[in-house]
Amino acid sequence: PAGDIDVEAGDIFFSTSGKGIVLGATSNTDANTLDDYEEGSFTPTLRADTTTDGQFDGTGYYTKIGNKVTCTFSFDNQDGSGLPVGRPVQIYSLPFTSDYSKKSYVSSGLMTHNITTREAAVYYLGANVTYARGFYAVSGSSWATWSTSDYRTTGIYLIFQMTYFTASWE
User: Do 71 and 161 contact (CB within 8 A), yes or no?
Assistant: First the structure.
């Protein structure tokens, strides 16, 4: 039909998969079709390298539009225990596999010690993985390699927002 479509009650949905809504284009091409949207929660795990010694879980939420995922999540280490000292930090169990070809290897986080010290962190995702590795942290104006010793302070609280591309339209 010509003109606008007015839906006053209910939702618009398709009875079969593989359909979408074309946005901002006059032709139905894959690049202009919104055909994948998802929201959910996940349980990220903070640990040293590939070991599970002293790991602890966090709370996370994500929104996936097409092949782009945006996550927000946090970790709370109130007792100051946990990870082995001096090992690179990794965040496991991200909700979707990364697509390295889309340059989705950088993300950031905020680390807070007892709500008085705040540091920013940079993480990267490798090719086709569901984890991010801690790369650098900055406190004040000094960048340094970020390792598990940074996470052993009592009352540490980590807050992250991460955006990356998935390896496929899952």
Answer: yes
